[in-house]
# Entry
Amino acid sequence: MKKVLAVTAGRKSGNTEILAKEVLMVAEENGAEVNMINLHDYNIKTCTGCESCTMKMGKGERPECIYKGKDDMDRIMEKFLQADGIVISIPSFVL
Ligand SMILES: Cc1cc2nc3c(=O)[nH]c(=O)nc-3n(C[C@H](O)[C@H](O)[C@H](O)COP(=O)(O)O)c2cc1C
# Structure
């Protein structure tokens, strides 16, 4: 069964969640296993621009954030990697 993940970042039960759920309902009707996450439920540390990830990529190594294991990005990434399709639904606040 195909897995579809919706990633939202608006208010709980707000418009972006409603739109994501509309998409997921159609996916589910067509046989997909669906899941939705709201980024507000996760601890995501802000990028400092230290470039340690890009330096590793430049050396042909697997990029790794200095915050690896210190926030929830691994949990989020695991969900991304398990999904066959990803729907991103975010509110527009600055044009
Ligand atoms: C402070 C603020 C700024 C906003 N700026 C924009 C904007 O620039 N463009 C736009 O299309 N909508 C704008 N909106 C509307 C939001 O995108 C809209 O309220 C959306 O439903 C919020 O998502 P949510 O309901 O999932 O929280 C703005 C809303 C707020 C509160």
